[in-house]
Amino acid sequence: METIDLRLKISQEVASYLQDEARNRGITLDQVVSDVLTDYFAELTEDQILDSIRIGMRQALAGHGRPAREVLAEVDREVTGDAHDG
Q1: How far apart are CA 34 and CA 42, in angstroms?
Q2: What is the residue range of 22's domain?
Q3: Does the predicted model carry a pTM greater than 0.90?
Q4: Which pLDDT score is estimated for 27?
C-alpha cells in the first residue's frame, strides 16, 4: 500500500484516545488512525441499512433465523465465559 505523510490538528483528548488505543492494541499510532479512517469510510449508507433491515424482516417473516431468546442466551454465554456450555 502506498502511503503519504499527512499532518492533522486534533485535540489533546483525541490524541490521548488514539495513543491509548495504539498501546492497547500493540500497533502504531499511524495504524490506529488508518484503521479509524478506513472504518469511517466503510460505514453503510442509510439506504443500505434500510435494505438490510427489509431483507432481515422478510427472512424473519418467512420463518428463517433463530429465536431472540436463543441468540441472547448465546451472547450471554460468550460474555460470561461459558461459550462452550450449552
Answers
A1: 12
A2: 12-41
A3: no
A4: 95
